[in-house]
From TrEMBL:
Name of the protein: Short-chain dehydrogenase
InterPro entries: NAD(P)-bd_dom_sf (IPR036291), Sc_DH/Rdtase_CS (IPR020904), SDR_fam (IPR002347)
Single GO cellular component term: membrane
Keyword terms, alphabetized: Oxidoreductase
SUPFAM superfamilies to which the protein is assigned, alphabetical: NAD(P)-binding Rossmann-fold domains (SSF51735)
Amino acid sequence: MTKTALITGASRGLGLALARSLAGAGWNLVLTARGAGDLERAAAELGATAVPGDVTDPEHVRRLATAVPSLDLLVNNASDLGVTPLPPLADYPLAAFRALLETNVTAPLALVQATLPALRARGGAIVNVTSDAATGAYEGWGGYGATKAALEQLSNVLAAEEPGVRVWWVDPGEMNTRMLADAVGAEEAASAADPAKVAAALSDLIAARPASGRVSLQ
């Protein structure tokens, strides 16, 4: 039986690399991201369904849930870095922090709520992509890290509340992505892991279906 995955933030970086890996394993894919052009090119490459839009938009969340009446895997990968250059918490603009919470915490929870009936029916799984910034005290990363810490605790409680669904909160480690380059510069980002390598490890995790919990891939 063909399995279906919904991946957010799927037009580049880890989301696109994971989509390629799962497509190679025969998964049916529904992909979403804000950049319609890049997303549609990715979907065409992989034979996937593209549903462009912003995961903070409740109407877009409803469209995504409608697109996956049968669902085996939800990957909450879409994320925002926040203000750059990364400011100390003493100077973090509160309006920007609220927006960051909306993207990195509220939107994943909204998608979980919208797709849980389909996931329960299939004994499916949820991957919430987090970061070591959720647990480490890195200067400048307080805003982003706080949102990822919140996402980790949501995942932790969700795993306890939904024993029939696997829930993994996954720290992929540093990857050579545009987001990391925006944070630390392109030169430093270039020395980080290839997203394709990390996606392969994440695909192995999804196939193995271990117990719910926090997973570090590097």
